[in-house]
Amino acid sequence: LNDYELRSFFSLLFPAGAETTTRSISGGMLALLEHPEQWRRLRSSPQLIKTAVEEVVRWTPPSVYKRRTATTTVEFCGLTIHESHKVTFWEMSANRDEAVFNHPFKFDLARSPNRHIGFGAGVHFCLGAALARLELKIVLQELARASINFELTDTPQWVPNNRLVGISKLPVKALPAK
Length: 178
Fold this sequence. Notes:
Elements: H1 3-34, H2 36-44, H3 49-59, E1 65-69, E2 74-76, E3 79-81, E4 86-90, H4 91-94, H5 129-145, E5 148-152, E6 157-158, E7 167-169, E8 172-176
Antiparallel strand pairs: 1-4, 2-3, 5-8, 6-7
Helix pairs in contact: 1-5, 3-5
């Protein structure tokens, strides 16, 4: 790669990793606040951390959709997609697909299997997936270990973006664990 291509690549890579992970963490925190039984479950069963990370990514994928261009004409689910047509793939919807997930609208930290596509798939699989999983694991582990609970004190504020979902403000209060 030449210098321009390298700068362009890293200009995309660094914010992509930071924005998506912070959005998953805040979305995961909101999910735990909205499902306190799952928070209690995680605190009492730290072995759930690995499946909890995957459920947070399934539940709160920061990327809403991807758009691709068909390189050949194909039949898919009874529809013809012609070469050069644009195809939009909705990750949030796919992660709630009843054909793939039992009880897809239930936030379940022990969900297994969890074949979500929060990190994409195939040649478009997220380059930073391992780092994102590690960051989520550390955050969830440390919060679960701490002797605190959280309470939502106001309405979360969402980032006004139709491509990446995220919370810009999550007002919480830390309370002693019971």
